[in-house]
Write a structure and sequence with these properties.
210 residues, alpha+beta, Aminopeptidase, six-stranded mixed barrel, 9 strands, acyltransferase, EC 2.3.1.-
């Protein structure tokens, strides 16, 4: 499957169009990782003292590496990014295949383009992969914001009050190897309806967060 065909999405207002590149992780070249690393440091760095550190050393991922990326470019370089990784998670007592969405970033001057454009671009990719659901998480503080952007537009079902246990990407002698966070879940029905999403407020990610 060739995921590298560009897709054009016009930005809001008078902004130039964003050209989307859909690619497998193995298709990225060294120059791509360097450019993405710089993008993530500049995007995540202002949000917290340590949030840009995972992307030092030309690293273009923070925890788990994505399998597929959607990268939006404009005339200034990387504008938007979202990654996806197929994995089995455990929802309550049910093992479930999902395409986890994460590693989302938008350049500060393009906030208006937002996550809705990224989700729309990623939908056809997830359909081609045949996964039952897309799944992602955001901080609980963003529940109202994400509901307005995705829930009300029917792009995702918003599930508040989830607890997710994840493996830390690195081992430290002073902290446990896993962590549990209370988050807001985002579920995208792809090959199965939302009615088939398992019941359960505890999710085992069984790996690092994307």
């Amino acid at each position: 499957m060739n995921m590298s065909a560009p897709v054009s999405t016009r930005g809001v207002s008078a902004r130039p169009p964003v050209r989307w590149r859909l690619c497998w992780e193995n298709e990225l070249q060294l120059a791509d990782h360097i450019e993405l690393s710089d993008f993530f440091r500049k995007t995540y760095g202002p949000t917290g003292e340590f949030n840009g550190k995972p992307f030092e050393g030309h690293r273009s991922w923070a925890g788990a590496r994505p399998e597929i990326r959607a990268i939006g470019y404009d005339d200034r370089g990387v504008a938007i990014h979202i990654g996806a990784l197929r994995r089995f998670i455990k929802v309550g007592e049910t093992d479930l295949l999902v395409a986890e969405l994460g590693l989302y970033g938008v350049r500060p001057d393009l906030e208006g383009l937002g996550i809705t454009h990224s989700i729309r671009v990623m939908y056809p990719v997830l359909r081609d992969l045949g996964v039952p659901f897309g799944f992602g998480t955001v901080r609980s503080a963003l529940q109202k914001h994400i509901t307005r952007l995705l829930g009300r537009q029917g792009l995702a079902t918003v599930l508040p009050g989830l607890r997710v246990r994840s493996a830390r990407p690195d081992i430290y002698l002073t902290v446990p190897p896993t962590r549990v966070e209370e988050v807001v879940g985002l579920v995208l029905p792809i090959a199965r309806p939302m009615s088939e999403w398992p019941a359960g407020e505890m999710i085992e990610r069984n790996g690092p967060e994307l």
